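Hey L., structure's done. Input below.
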Amino acid sequence: MNKTPQANRIHIGIFGKRNVGKSSLLNAICGQQVSLVSPIQGTTTDPVKKAMELVPVGPVLFIDTAGLDDSGEVGKLRVEKTKQIMQEVDLALFVMDVNDPDLELFNKIINEFKKLDITFLTVFNKIDTVGKEKIEELKTKFPGALFVSAKNPDKIQELKEALAGIIKEREERNSLIADLLPQNSKVILVIRIDEAAPKGRLILPQVQLIRDCLDHGIKCYVVRDSELESALNDIKGVDLVITDSSIFKKVAEIVPESVPLTSFSILFARYKGNLHLLLEGIKKLEELPEEARILIAESCTHAVTCEDIGRVKIPALLNKHLKKKLTIDVASGQDFPQNITDYDLVIHCGACMLNKKAMVNRLKKCQEKGVAVTNYGMILAHFSGILQRATEIFS
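Output:
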């Protein structure tokens, strides 16, 4: 559980005014002193993240944030950072002090949650400080809200159970492959083992897909590209072949046209974002100006090799096929450039190190700013002449 990457965890943000007990709630949920607690307003300055196992749904990441009513020049920066956290959370707790509910702030932030398509729970804290009449009054005004006390383990357990219920329902609707193939289907995963492959382990997208197949009763066969042909002879009735994007062309030549084919990158583009938008981005390739500026966006930092897809192979393909004067920049890590309108096209990685919410908001930003966006797998499939075949299974 402790080794589960943040990208694979449900992100749960805790929001509200200063001194409503956000940090106390996080400590109570985790059963340990994660955030500093003090009667002094503004004790939490930067977001505090805590990974844990939420029974029975699995690994999650809680994020405690600074108060949304913080003031002063530094306070404004803290509020801005809190609002940035909203861009990456899957689920939000909006916490209010039962003694001082702020309806104006509540309505303002809930509207923000709705704009960002964030599922949220309204939580009233410190119920140990008021009588039943006050609680009943607020229940009428805020139907569906939870009433808890960070000092009451039973109430904290109710909160955890409510969170688990929402997450379970959400996860049942999300799958990499289960909505494409029925139980007992046969899938071959083609993995390239080269100098860029990590020694002794698989990369995150491969592991996630294998687990998704296991979760949904789909038979999964893992082979290298050098064994693919013999695997196809051994395994009858293959329903889908999924390949590493870097060997798309080679694999397409081996896999019969009758067998559906796609890539890890394209599957993740669909799972974590907007497949239609990324396909539209491919169409913009031929419309790029003569001196186009392109951004290669990576969600992680890694050692660059001569076989690197984003920094070596894709730039080489762009220059070879487009024959234009291209300026190609690379951005890596968790921060997405603010100057996105400086670019004519964004080519994003498979986003295995980003959670779905963060990736969706990156795509929304491109869409709102009118900047075309696509991803690694689609670029490689396009230049290999097999993009239509690689996306047929989604139509």
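Residues 116 and 382 are 31 Å apart (CA to CA). The mean pLDDT is 87.

-- N.
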